[in-house]
Amino acid sequence: MGILFTFTATVLLFIIITFLYLTFQTYSGKSIKNPDYPPVDGTVFGQLFYFNRLYDHQTEVARKQKTFRLLAPGQSELYTTDIRNIEHVLKTNFDNYTKGKYNQDIANDLFGNGIFAVDGDKWRQQRKLASFEFSTRVLRDFSCSVFRRNAAKLVRVISEMAIVDQIFDMQDTLMRCTLDSIFKVGFGVELNCLEGSSKEGTEFMKAFDDSNALVYWRYVDPLWKLKRYFNIGSEASLKKNIKIIDAFVTNLIRTKRKLLAEERICDDKEDILSRFLVESRKDPEEMNDKYLRDIILNFMIAGKDSSANTLSWFFYMLCKNPVIQEKVAQEVRDVTRSQDDVVNVEEFTANITDTALEQMHYLHAALTETLRLYPCCSCGKSSENSWTLNSMHYINSLKFMRTTDVIMLVTWFFGLKDGRCAEVDDILPDGYRMKKGDGLYYMAYAMGRMPYIWGEDAEDFRPERWLNNGVFQPESPFKFIAFNVCIFSSFVAYIKCQAIYKVDGCPHAGRSSDMSGQRLRLPADEDSINSPSPVLPLQISR
């Protein structure tokens, strides 16, 4: 009895001491009443009360105050929708903001020295190399061909469900299609998740997703280093998953290196891994297998989920706006000159050329408007490559959330996700001060709904706002931050979205059935869309 009492008392004392310590760390030295610093809107812990409507709550606060802060243990977290502040951190004063050692320590086991986990010269070197490779004609042509081919597969799968008037999960279907594309472009490997399965590839992706969740869990697990040392609990699972990941990627790298040594891979090889292998011959010591492993995994996190999630919102918004859906489909028909004489998907995709893509201004505007309202990274810290919330497009009202999303949401509450923090005291363009160690977040979701940025109709889905005399007109990347937050995922999302909807607009999706005039629509029971379910149910209707 005495032992139980002593144990209980010790636990309670530990809890009380921890609470007092966190309270002291949260409120001390924060200049709460000082008007030189942004107004305080509570603590990071208080956002747990807005779990079901976090982004909408942020939007409400941002309407009253463009820049505000939340108090966190040891620092303040600033949130802003002020375009001047965003440009200041991402461009003008970029070198004075880093991801921070704390974030790097947490992410290092999985992402190593990849572009999303490093700063300084390493970041610049990788960005320069990646920007060059992504801009090459060979990679762009290869990517487009992969996306078009998988888009054709997607239409055939949807066509089969349309024949029986079946309700299907659009997000899941798009996830599998995107995974096939990312694997092919990244590794040169056919995964075939959409029509079949690859046991080895599926095991790799499961390990990759689980590792992401376990890494993010470290943010709210004060004992993670101890658990890693003793190899127990979540850290044991993480180590096991990383072993699977490393084995898969290392095998691919070594196999392709062998082919390259035998001169069976030429310099214009198309997939990203092969292109980096060719580049590594210039500096084999620096660009070793570990270096290439980190680059590839960072590429995967950038593009895997973001494309499918953006597409899901795109189709959802078209279903909610049938007039816009018809305008998009009509533009596709007009530009590709596809009428009833087109007999199959393959013939239709042959009409999708670079020239045709450039002429589809309304489709470009509709996709951009989707990203404005439902950005890939709805709230990111000040980083040109924010990656923590790539899987969280559907956080609003808990739409389409998955297990990994919930875990990442928990880490977001504590203000401890990937991003940048001030390395020195600074003054933002709006006049507010930042202390060394404070973090800065830009709120892309809220920004898309601010009247002082987009006008009184900011919350309306209106592609026409991007058109001038029918021609697409881009905005400043610091105003339209949704496209700037992740250069790789946005590249993939734009190309893939265009390819998929162009094919979906085809008058005849396949030889087996006439789908002319058919359109995607939401099922009669739309309540499922607003439930905490990882499903976007759609139907095909005439």
Automatic annotation (TrEMBL):
It comes from the Eukaryota. The keyword Ligase does not apply. Residues 523-542 are annotated as: Disordered. One of its GO terms (molecular function) is monooxygenase activity. Keywords: Heme, Iron, Membrane, Metal-binding, Monooxygenase, Oxidoreductase, Transmembrane, Transmembrane helix. Its cofactor is heme. Pfam families: p450. The chain crosses the membrane at residues 6-24. InterPro entries: Cyt_P450, Cyt_P450_sf. CDD domains: CYP86A (cd11064). PANTHER family: CYTOCHROME P450. Belongs to the cytochrome P450 family. This is CYTOCHROME P450.
